[in-house]
Amino acid sequence: MSDTYALPRRVLADLVPGALARDAVLVGLGAALTGAAAQVAVSIEPISPVPLTGQTLAVLLVGAALGPVRAAASMALYLAAGMLGLPWFADGASGAALVSLGYVIGFVVAGAVVGELARRGGDRTPLRTAGTMVVGNLCIYAFGVPYLALAAHLSPAKALDAGVVPFLIGDALKVLLATALLPAAWAVVRRVRDNRR
Questions:
Q1: CA 166/CA 46 separation, integer angstroms
Q2: Which of 6, 106, 128, 197: disulfide with 143, CB 3.0–4.6 Å?
Q3: How far apart are CA 123 and CA 81, in angstroms?
C-alpha cells in the first residue's frame, strides 16, 4: 500500500494525543482561527455587500485537519459565538443581521464535508486536495448565495453575481494554497513516523 493511503480514516488532528481535552482545544482553536481569518477582510462594495476575507481558507483547512465532527463543532461554535455577540465575523461584526450570515452557516456544512473527505484521504495528494477544497467552497456557496438573495432582496442571478463571481479568483488561490499545505503536512507526518521506526 502506498504512503498516500497508509493512514486511512484519519485526519491530522487524530495524530495529537489525548481525546476529550484534545478535541475541545482543537474545536476552540479552529473557531478562533476562523475568527482571526475573518479580520483579514476587504470591502468590495458596491460589487458585493459580502467582503473578501480569509475565512474560507480557514474553514477548509480546519475541516481537513480536524475531521468531520470536530470541524462541524468548531464552525458551529464560531457561528453561535458570533451570533451571540462575539465580534469575530468579518470586520469585527457580530449578530444575526448580516447579509453574509448564510456563508457562515455554510461553514458548518463545509467543515463537516471537507472533514469527511479528508478522513477518506481527500487531502493526501494535490489533486485530491483541490477536489476536496472545491467541494467545500460549493457547500459554502450553497448556503451563502440563497441567504444573500433573501437578506439583500436580490434575484437569483444578481445573488450569483454578487455572491459568487467576485470571489472566484480568491477562492481559486485559496484552493491552490490548501493544495500545497495539506499534502506537505502529510509528507511531514510520514517522514516523522518513518524516522520513529
A1: 11
A2: 106
A3: 29
